[in-house]
Structure formats: C-alpha cells, structure tokens
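Comment thread on ticket #2218

A.B. wrote:
> Attaching the input chain for the structure job we discussed in standup.
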Amino acid sequence: MTITPEQFNKLATREDQDALKKDVEEIKSDVKQMLSTLDGVAKSFKDHEIEHISNIAAHDRFEERINILGF
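C.D. wrote:
> Ran it. Output below, let me know if you need it in another format.
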C-alpha cells in the first residue's frame, strides 16, 4: 500500500516524538507544582478552620464565665 506525499508529510518523525515527550514532561512538572500549591492552600484552610473552631470554643467559655459573674 502506497501513501501520498501529503500523508507522508503528516507522519511523525523522531524529532516530533522527542518534542512531544519534552512537552509532556513540562506539563507533568507544571501539574505537580499546581498540586503542591493546592495542597498548601488546603492545609492552610484546614488550619484556619481549626483555629476558628478553637476561637469559638474559647469565646463560649468566656461568655459562660461572664454570665456567672452577672454582667
């Protein structure tokens, strides 16, 4: 089976494959960096959430003490 010159020109060369591999590696690296950043944001959010809950609990304790004092 023969191919036309147009079909031949569309065939991937070794250089095309190497360029594709390089692009995929760069994308892979970028995705890893984005996921690391996202993990940091999620951890920060969780830490803030825990701190917020602690603050609410402390506020409730102080409010109970103030109510006992009769203010």
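A.B. wrote:
> Thanks. Noting for the ticket: The CA atoms of residues 34 and 40 lie 10 Å apart.
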